[in-house]
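step=encode ok
step=design start
structure_in=
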């Protein structure tokens, strides 16, 4: 077992649909005392961005360290079939290249206890090899003594839907408890200039602040548990959001409102207190960073880069994408440095507002349409209501933070335009693997004939002085110490196993031959691969003749 004192624990607190509306980012309306305290004890990043303005593509890049367009997870909602658009090639689980794993497998290989509580939303079902525990009760407290841990908590209360419904909150609070977080005055919120400044819009934004305050309370509880367990000094805490805020022209879009996220890191003894960094960070960098600072294996194919530690790599650019969202196909690519943002619209003939039915629930979205139909929107508010788009958009994000003035045709900025065009072309050539392939063609490659592939079941191979591993066996008695190797014929398969005979056992990640140490050992095993069906469970029964061993 890895010694906890030699390797740090890692705690991730992953918030949903949230731009940096925190006090530590200078937002005076925010009520975030716990998050602000965490920031005061570490480093706040002001240039952190997601790879997509929506959760599942973004989360798939985070958990794999791979761009969503490189592994076929770029279309939002693959597991749902929409009754109004049955022609879509859904449902399916994305099948990345065989070598792609959740990066947590590499941590588990190094002896880390990995837990996720509880949201995944990766565009594929998390393989059983990804987590020691995954669910509402997953917690570092369930690990073995002195085992280092990587634990993720996913407060969901700030999800876009919380601005118009209590679906998520109803599972957390009683009706009376809900009232204590209704603390934000709608009259005091700042309405982005591209949205109509109406009571309904203000109420939605105020509600978002209230949900952030609720999440802040949850953050406090998680950090208190860490302190109760005496783990603060040896635990690196990361707090971040999966993408930007859930407002129109933010969520689902590569404008800064949709991809700029909070990122706070507390690393006792390494990061000094109360720091602010302008370093460019992409959320795809989170996994590679954890692997680097825990001194775990970091495969060459990972496309993110460490932003902390001895292997830190500065990045000059971040990249973001937009593709199908629910019912509507689109293709937008974007690149940003510390000052300029370049956006390429592959469908300039289309309106910005394609039909994504879920977004129509949003109060601010409804206000946009209501006032547009009455011809009461101003020029900035009409930006998102245009029935066609410029092929290219260029923004000076430093001087135009709301990205209102498109500079693509301004001769004074042609040098920046050409530079970012080239950078985006280079990125697309390297990482936009599935961008030029229709989703239907992609799914047929991933699921031949529309059928989800199944992982081949493991087989048991015994090895000792008499058994040389020439052929498998699933039940045998041996007269000497013996190792059992597990093998699956599926390319890229991971194998999990257990020695427990319970209905819901704890599955271990297979990393090498199992040494038989008891007179009788039952090994249960499955093989898994991302996007594939799990194999059938197999069982091997092995005995060691203790008198002759």
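sequence_out=
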């Amino acid at each position: 077992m890895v010694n906890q004192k030699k390797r740090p624990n890692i705690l991730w607190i992953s918030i949903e649909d949230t731009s940096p509306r925190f006090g530590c980012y200078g937002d005076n309306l925010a009520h975030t005392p716990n998050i602000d305290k965490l920031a005061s004890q570490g480093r706040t990043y002001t240039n952190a961005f997601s790879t997509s303005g929506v959760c599942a593509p973004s989360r798939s890049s985070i958990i794999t360290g791979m761009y969503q367009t490189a592994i076929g997870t770029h279309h939002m909602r693959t597991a749902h079939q929409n009754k109004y658009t049955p022609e879509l090639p859904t449902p399916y689980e994305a099948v990345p290249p065989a070598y792609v794993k959740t990066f947590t497998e590499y941590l588990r290989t190094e002896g880390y206890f990995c837990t996720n509580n509880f949201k995944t939303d990766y565009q594929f079902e998390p393989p059983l090899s990804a987590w020691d525990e995954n669910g509402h009760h997953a917690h570092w407290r369930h690990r073995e003594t002195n085992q280092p841990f990587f634990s993720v908590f996913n407060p969901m209360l700030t999800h876009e839907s919380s601005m118009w419904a209590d679906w998520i909150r109803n599972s957390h609070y009683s009706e009376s408890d809900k009232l204590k977080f209704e603390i934000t005055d709608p009259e005091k919120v700042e309405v982005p200039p591209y949205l109509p400044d109406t009571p309904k819009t203000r109420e939605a934004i105020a509600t978002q602040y209230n949900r952030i305050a609720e999440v802040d309370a949850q953050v406090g509880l998680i950090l208190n548990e860490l302190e109760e367990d005496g783990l603060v000094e040896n635990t690196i805490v990361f707090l971040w959001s999966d993408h930007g805020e859930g407002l129109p022209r933010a969520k689902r879009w590569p404008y800064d409102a949709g991809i700029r996220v909070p990122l706070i890191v507390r690393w006792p003894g390494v990061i000094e207190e109360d720091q602010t960094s302008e370093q460019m960070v992409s959320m795809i960098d989170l996994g590679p960073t954890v692997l680097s600072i825990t001194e775990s294996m970091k495969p060459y194919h990972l496309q993110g880069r460490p932003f902390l530690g001895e292997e830190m790599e500065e990045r000059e650019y971040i990249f973001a994408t937009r593709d199908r969202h629910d019912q509507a196909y689109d293709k937008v690519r974007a690149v940003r440095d510390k000052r300029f943002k370049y956006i390429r619209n592959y469908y300039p003939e289309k309106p910005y507002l394609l039909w994504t039915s879920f977004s129509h629930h949003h109060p601010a979205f409804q206000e946009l349409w209501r006032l547009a139909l009455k011809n009461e929107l101003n020029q900035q508010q009409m930006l998102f209501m245009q029935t066609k788009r410029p092929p290219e958009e260029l923004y000076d994000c430093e001087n135009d933070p709301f990205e209102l003035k498109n500079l693509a045709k301004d001769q004074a900025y042609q040098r920046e335009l050409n530079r970012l065009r080239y950078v985006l072309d280079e990125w697309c050539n390297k990482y936009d693997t599935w961008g030029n392939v229709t989703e239907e063609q992609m799914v047929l490659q991933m699921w031949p004939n529309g059928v989800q592939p199944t992982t081949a079941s493991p087989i048991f191979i015994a090895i000792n002085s008499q058994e040389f591993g020439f052929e498998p066996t699933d039940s045998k008695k041996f007269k000497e110490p013996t190792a059992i190797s597990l093998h699956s014929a599926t390319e890229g398969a991971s194998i999990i196993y257990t020695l427990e005979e319970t209905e819901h056992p704890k599955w271990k990640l297979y990393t090498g031959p199992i040494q038989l140490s008891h007179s009788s050992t039952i090994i249960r095993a499955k093989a898994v691969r991302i996007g594939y069906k799990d194999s059938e469970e197999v069982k091997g029964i092995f005995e060691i003749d203790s008198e002759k061993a």
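step=design ok
step=annotate ok -> The chain has a mean pLDDT of 96.
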